[in-house]
């Protein structure tokens, strides 16, 4: 797990669309496996992975309980969701939020739904409601609250994992909090990857670190030896540093989520996250 996984965030993330921007309801574009090539070359892919990596850098070495600045635009989000002058963007942005809470027919949930919520946050940045400067607030306040809601739904309705690889997958439901959570722990003075399989270390530190909160949730939901029900995570606990864990998880996320047809076939594309090929500046 030694790939850097770093790439600069897309410059388009903080560009507020002009008032004449033609918003559109995002639609399905990935219908066959060969269509995956369009996705990997698309502006949507570049902006999405750029957003994920920007947030990854922003939370490095920070606790969930640390102080962080929240821009005025983010406060407006809480009060009014989207400012009136951006009303035309609401249907496009809202679709990603609707897609982020699982399938109402199958009662399932997985990393594709999680990606829809990250896409929702990315779109809010693209229209200027959130700022990339708000990266800690985006992860620690908004995304973490989303995790709390989804965990409550998972416990209440026993939602089926969507596309789970079972014992060979990282987790039944989430992936991003492991990436951002491992970034939080980079250069921690005493917590090492081997400690996340230590019940005492998890119980004492989970409120500060997203990765450990994920581990706690897994142990609450599953029974039996950790090495058996979460073999991938057990193997990761042997990695010598959090930076290597983080780099490896980014590589795994691209390979196991963003490059898998069963996950991406459900992703929707609009004017903010378009299917058109990325344009070089």
Automatic annotation (TrEMBL):
GO terms for cellular component: cytoplasm; nucleus; protein phosphatase type 2A complex. Signal peptide: none annotated. Belongs to the PTPA-type PPIase family. Its EC number is 5.2.1.8. Its main location: cytoplasm. It is found in: Cytoplasm; Nucleus. One of its GO terms (molecular function) is protein tyrosine phosphatase activator activity. GO terms for biological process: mitotic spindle organization. This is Serine/threonine-protein phosphatase 2A activator. It catalyses: [protein]-peptidylproline (omega=180) = [protein]-peptidylproline (omega=0). The keyword Glycosyltransferase does not apply. It is an enzyme of class 5 (isomerase). InterPro entries: Phstyr_phstse_ac (IPR004327), PTPA_C_lid (IPR043170), PTPA_sf (IPR037218). The keyword Transmembrane does not apply. Keywords: Acetylation, ATP-binding, Cytoplasm, Isomerase, Magnesium, Metal-binding, Nucleotide-binding, Nucleus, Rotamase. Pfam families: PTPA. PPIases accelerate the folding of proteins. It catalyzes the cis-trans isomerization of proline imidic peptide bonds in oligopeptides. Acts as a regulatory subunit for serine/threonine-protein phosphatase 2A (PP2A). Modulates PP2A activity or substrate specificity, probably by inducing a conformational change in the catalytic subunit, a proposed direct target of the PPIase. Can reactivate inactive phosphatase PP2A-phosphatase methylesterase complexes (PP2A(i)) in presence of ATP and Mg(2+). Residues 1-23 are annotated as: Disordered.
């Amino acid at each position: 797990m030694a790939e850097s996984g770093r790439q600069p965030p897309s410059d388009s993330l903080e560009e507020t669309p002009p008032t004449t921007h033609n918003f559109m309801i995002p639609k399905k574009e990935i219908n066959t496996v060969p269509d995956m090539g369009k996705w990997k070359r698309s502006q949507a892919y570049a902006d999405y992975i750029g957003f994920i990596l920007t947030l990854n850098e922003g939370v490095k070495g920070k606790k969930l309980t640390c102080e962080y600045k929240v821009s005025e635009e983010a406060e407006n989000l809480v009060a009014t969701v989207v400012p009136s002058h951006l009303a035309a963007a609401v249907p496009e942005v809202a679709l990603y939020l609707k897609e982020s809470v699982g399938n109402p027919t199958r009662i399932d949930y997985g990393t594709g739904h999680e990606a829809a919520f990250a896409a929702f946050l990315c779109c809010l940045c693209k229209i200027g409601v959130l700022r990339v400067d708000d990266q800690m607030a985006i992860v620690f306040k908004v995304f973490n609250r989303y995790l709390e809601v989804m965990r409550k739904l998972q416990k209440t309705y026993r939602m089926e994992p969507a596309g789970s690889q079972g014992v060979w997958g990282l987790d039944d439901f989430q992936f991003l909090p492991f990436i951002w959570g491992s970034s939080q722990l980079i250069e921690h003075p005493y917590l090492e990857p081997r400690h996340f399989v230590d019940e005492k270390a998890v119980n004492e530190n989970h409120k500060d670190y997203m990765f450990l909160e994920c581990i706690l949730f897994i142990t609450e939901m599953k029974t039996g030896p950790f090495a058996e029900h979460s073999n991938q995570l057990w193997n990761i606990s042997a990695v010598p540093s959090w930076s290597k864990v983080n780099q490896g998880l980014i590589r795994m996320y691209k390979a196991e989520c963003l490059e898998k047809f069963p996950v991406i076939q459900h992703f929707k594309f609009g004017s903010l996250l378009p299917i058109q090929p990325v344009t070089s500046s």
